[in-house]
Every structure is written in structure tokens, then in C-alpha cells.
Amino acid sequence: MHLPPFKNEPFLDFTDERNAVAMAAAVAKVEAELGREYLLVINGERIQTGDLLTSYNPSAFKQVVGRVHRATQEQADQAVRTANEAFKTWQYTSAEHRASYLVKASAEMRRRKLEFNAWLVLEAGKSWAEAEADTAEAIDFMEFYARQALRFAESQPLTQSPLQDEVNEAFYIPLGAGIVIPPWNFPLAILAGMATAAVVAGNTVVLKPSSDTPVIAAKFFELMESVGLPPGVMNFLPCSGGQVGDFLVAHPQTRFISFTGSMEVGLHINELAAKTSPGQLWIKRVVAEMGGKDTIVVDETANLDEAAAGIVASAFGYSGQKCSACSRAVIVSSVYDQVLEKVAERTAQLTVGDVKTGKVFTGPVASKKQFDSISNYIEIGKQEGRIVVGGGQHELANEGWYIQPTIVADVAPKARISQEEIFGPVLALIKAENFDDALNIANNTQFGLTGAFYSNSRIRIDRAKREFHVGNLYINRKCTGALVDVHPFGGFNMSGTDSKAGGRDYLLLFLQAKSVAEKY
Ligand code: NAP
Ligand code: MG
User: Fold this and answer.
1) How far is CA 314 from CA 29, 57, 307, 322, 342, in A?
2) Which of 262, 263, 445, 497 to mutate to test the pocket of ligand 1 (most atoms within 8 A of CB)?
3) pTM above 0.85, yes or no
4) Domains, the chain, ranges and CATH?
5) What angle is formed at CA 175 by the lines to CA 507 and CA 94, rounded to 5 degrees?
6) pLDDT tens digit string along 48-101?
């Protein structure tokens, strides 16, 4: 198979009236499909369990998006065994064959892009533009990993043995059956990326979607079925992470766990996976991409308007619910008041409401759980700083999980809202004495995912490149919006295992190398 070079999927521009009309039609079409039931799929068989999980639209929380059957431990066991059974043959299929499913799936997703966008709008509360970015990234992951699988299947360079008549080779083989556990915030892109990377490398998976966004997951799974992915290679297992997650992770036939989500759950999975279960033949591999406390630093040489625009876009896009979202702006004292004013002015203009119509900048937060947790942090913020924008109740808070974009100024570097991941539209502003102080503050949390630095000082930019300890650093631009193979993504410290999703090393996490010497 010869594939043209990888290119990032372009984003549809919804200020173009034709695109806006088409998107509105897609939302209406998907709205007519709300409320349906989705079943577990193990080995291609649909299984009804009767234990229904209801997914609601966070923009209008009385609206049911769908109902999804949840697995018990017994079905989880069946899914892991099935994946192991399917691995027996799938591991020996060619990389070209496996890659062909991803390419077909991405083509199909491209054809149905607006429909996938609409599901993201209605189940995850994404604005049209954010939904478009999520779907485009899912397409990118599939296109990119298909190409990477072909690359890793090529013959690997070795030094030949000094012994005569010995021929040496090294090649990559898959690991086995793994559990794929995505979060709700990129319910299509991260889910599709993690699941298809594992599968294209020759592994089989049990896909356990987030309980907040199981319908989008079901739609993705149906898409993989529609392109003919053999039964058992991917199994669809909605279930409660709290109740069935430990069983899946601890299962002796689980070879790896690919997780993206919170630090608490990631560390718990890592610990549990390290314990050997009776009958287990391997050390489980854990890839865990976790939370962040992402900081934008602004010094006195920066273009302050651009800095303010970058802070606002990074902090409040998708209501701050990106692992890359800016949740702290650290500003040197001589320009602190100016930046504060510019950020506040822009933030006050943001519109928050039902994302369905495509008319608002951002929508609600994802769930009651998020709403309660963020609201609590806003109360803490009132103690720890000065509310400059937001902080009150949104006028539609009795219809959807809406929270006003909120800015808390004059926050101390070690305050709770400066240290803990909030994962909502809450931005802390911190005054630093100078650049050195700002850099120290930027590095003072347990996380290390993304960060940005606005400056026109070459010396300081070079220092930031060395000393600002984050997996994804951006200079003079916002800290969100990573693109596949342009900004391979993953963080340091408690932000995870730095897997660099969408990067050229990513598939190695799902492979192991075999070295063969043959004497002729
Ligand atoms: P979460 O609460 O940790 O949940 C993530 C997934 O883990 C869900 O599917 C959840 O299932 C499952 N889970 C929960 N307990 C489990 C257990 N004991 N065993 C196995 N699985 C279990 O995170 P979230 O709220 O969905 O996502 C937000 C978090 O993800 C934030 O911290 C954000 O920073 C992080 N994130 C990181 C990245 C990155 O690349 N570093 C990207 C996106 C998001 P249930 O839904 O059924 O509970
Ligand atoms: Mg929901």
C-alpha cells in the first residue's frame, strides 16, 4: 500500500454560510436520533445487559442523548478473553492490511464529519469549532498511525554479526490484548487515537468509553464495524470505571492499559497494574496521560494584546475543559495591571450558552460532577484572590451546566487554585516579580503538561525552552490546539508518561522488538 504523505485535516470554517447551514442541518438530523439504546459489542455480538447508563446533553440536561448498556464483571471477563482469542490471528496480519482499516475509517469519518461534530455538540457540549477540531484530530490520528504502522513494519537497521554465515534481523511485534480507557473531553479524538494506534500495531482491545460520553464512543465503534474490522479485534465495553475498571486492569490476560484521564485514576491504574495476578505471564505496560495545571507566562517585553488573546483562548475555549487549557497566567509585575485589564476585557465579551445553534463562543461544562467541582473551586478562589470577571451564577444554570468564565486575580503561587487542576473556565492571575520569579512559579506544581511564554527577549525565550518543564511548550502563541505530528502531545511529572500522542514514537508503546539471528 502506498499512502501519500500525511497532512493535517483542514478545519471547516463556520463563518462561511454554506458550512453553517450544513452544520445546522447535521445537528437537526442527529437531534432526531437522540434517545436510542446502544449495546455492548463483544466478538461482534451485541449484548443487552439491562443496566442502562443514560447520557444527557450538558447544554440542556433534561435531554437524553442515548442509553447505553453497561457491562458487568462477567462480561468484562468475556471481553478480555475474546480480545486474547482474536489476538491469536490479528497479530499475524500484515501492517498494510491493518492500516487499510484505519484509512477506510478516516475516509468514512471525513464523509460524515458534520454528523460526528453534531454528536460532539450534543453529548459533550462542544461549540461547532471545537467539535470540528475534535473530529479532525480523530481523522488525523487514524491517517497518521496508519502510516506509522507501515514504517514500523519495515526492516530495521542492524549491524551484521562478525560471524560468517549469520544473518541478523530485528522487527516489531505487538503486545497482546489491552484495555483502552479514554476521558470525556476529547471523546472522539482521544478515544479513536488510543484505540486505533493499539489495533494498527497488531494488538486487540477492550474499549471502555467514558461514562459521560458513551454515545459518541458507540458511533465510533459502529464506524469501525462498518469498514469491516474483524470481530473481536475491538470490543465495545461501556461500564462504570469505578465498578469494573479495577477488574479490567487487574485481569491476568490484560497485557497493557492505555489510559487518558485524571491523575488520581491514572496513578491508581498504574499501581494496580504493577501487581501480578495469578496466571499472569508479563509485566503490564501502562501508558497514562493525566492532568495539567498549564501556565502562560508573560514578561514586560511581550506583545500584550497577543498575550491577552492567547490567554483568553487557552483558558476559556471549550470552557477550560482541555488538559492543555491555561489555568494560570503568571505576569511580571510591571505589566501585570495592563495584561489583567486586557484579559478581563476580552473575557467579559465571551458568550456562553447552548452550543447547538453555533452562535456562542463556548458551552456548558460536561456534567453535574464537573459543575459542582468547578463551582467549589470558584468559592475557594473568592477566598484566595479577587474575582475580576464571572464568579456568579449563569442565567441558564437551571437548564444546562453553564458556568461564567471566571478570572481570579492576585492569587498566591502556592494557593490551591494555583496548584490543583480545576478543569473548567477558571483562570488564576499571578503577579511575578520578574522573569526568573515567573519561571519558578510556572514550574512550581506537580504537573508539566503544556505552557506558553510571551516575550520578545531572545535570551529569555531560549531559557524558557530549556527550563520551562512541560511536555508541550509554546512561545508567543496559545497553549492549546496541538496538531497531530506537528505538536506530538504528552506531559512530564504527574501529567503522565509523556507518550507523545500524535508523534512518531507513539506506536512503540504498543510494540515490542524481536531480534533474530539465523546461521545459514
Ligand atoms: P477520569 O475521571 O480519570 O476518567 C477517565 C476514564 O477512566 C473514564 O473512562 C473513567 O470511567 C475511567 N475510570 C475511572 N475509574 C477507573 C478505574 N478504577 N479503573 C479504570 N478506569 C477508570 O478523567 P475524566 O474526568 O474523564 O477526564 C478529565 C481528565 O483527563 C483531566 O484530568 C484531564 O487533564 C485529563 N486529560 C489528559 C489528557 C492528556 O493528554 N494528558 C488529555 C485529555 C484529558 P468512568 O467515566 O466510567 O468513570
Ligand atoms: Mg453527558
Assistant:
1) 31, 24, 10, 9, 15
2) 262
3) yes
4) 18-290+498-519 (3.40.605.10), 294-483 (3.40.309.10)
5) 70
6) 999 999 999 999 999 999 999 999 999 999 999 999 999 999 999 999 999 999
